[in-house]
Fold:
Amino acid sequence: MGLAPPFWPEEPEALIAAQEILAAAAPEPWQFAGGRPLAVAGCFVCFPRGSSGTGAAGDPGWAGAALVADGRLVAVLVVGGQARAAYEPGLLALREGPLLESAVRGLPGVPDVLVVNATGRDHPRRAGLALHLGAVLSLPTVGVTARPLVAAGDWPMDERGASSPLRVDGEIVGFWLRTRRGARPLAVHAAWRTDPETALAVVIAATGSARTPEPLRLARRAAREARAALR
Structure:
């Protein structure tokens, strides 16, 4: 299943309609076969420091992407551009979608799965940016955020690898995951072609000693370094 052009609607009403279509889609599920070599990409976008409120259309942005294959960094890059909208919960694709797509398409290889700093099924219409981006790129995706958007669930115990479900209206849409003892857990989201259990397995496999999965951590660092270089 793919989106008919334009992939990234420019108006809220059009995005909401696209999200409803994506939420109802039934693409072939992707399964992570644990133990085999895995190519994981991560992507992250940042905007100028010090800006207040929700930002605005035209804000400069830096989107980083990193590709890690079998635990080895293959490539990292940054694409600069402009936000197409201010931030609004549930409509993040308006602001960040095209920038993230450009960064991931710039990578020299195609990953097995993409980790996105955004939600997936944890969304008012069950189609957050992580899911939308996967549909545009035709890639399985997993969302990783600091907190849920609309889902809720108790934190897991304070042990590395501990997890607990995140639910929306009784449906499990992701998990809290403790990637490091003593640190706040991450919210892991099912997204395009991934279910909550698969998303959890991918993030565990892609996370080393840091709290954040390595491909996402490297993409975030690259984007922030590019921003700092232009200050």
